[in-house]
Amino acid sequence: MTFSIEGISIPDSKLAREVTELVRDTESPLLFHHSSRVYYFGALAGKRRGLKFDPELLYAGAMFHDMGLMHQHSSPCERFEVDGANAARDFLEGRGIAQADIDTVWTAIALHTTPGIPQHMHPVVALVTAGVEMDVLGIAYDEYDDAVREAVVQTHPRGDHFKENIIQAFYDGIWHKPETTFGNVKADVLADKEPHFHRGNFCNVIRRSHWAS
Description:
By secondary structure, the protein is mainly alpha-helical. It is 58% helix and 0% strand. Helix 4 (80-93) packs antiparallel against helix 5.
């Protein structure tokens, strides 16, 4: 069953159903529901911003964005974002999706942890990141009505201790290849040259976000 929230629902198509089945059977419930919320929050942001986007492509990008954290799709030396993008690419190629659309989904997944760039790109790229940032970091939290947030979470629950559980899920997916986590070189330069520079911390941002758990 698909749920409509302010006119946004999961696409009723064979492709979307296959995406749902694969991700549900591969990822943990934590990541499956997180990815589903990413789709809803991303699509709602797109509607609010007046962006035109293909719901199927946005759904594929949202649902595959954390697939690289799963051992079945985790390579020895690529960033987990690239592993997820490659998994989505292989899936979509096998279903005859146009190369340009595959490239858009690939880029959306590969860039979803790179702030400051996706919002200037194709709507699908921008909205996958918008959905991730809302669900994990609470960015633009106040731009979603209480009723909308509640409806999304009722449809795809966050569960208890979501913040710590999502941090643990990231750790579990990347601990074995720390070299792929090489950070923002600009922050490295500032830390090297500016004694009073304080580097931002992703985990602390999650813990301080508006979400309660």
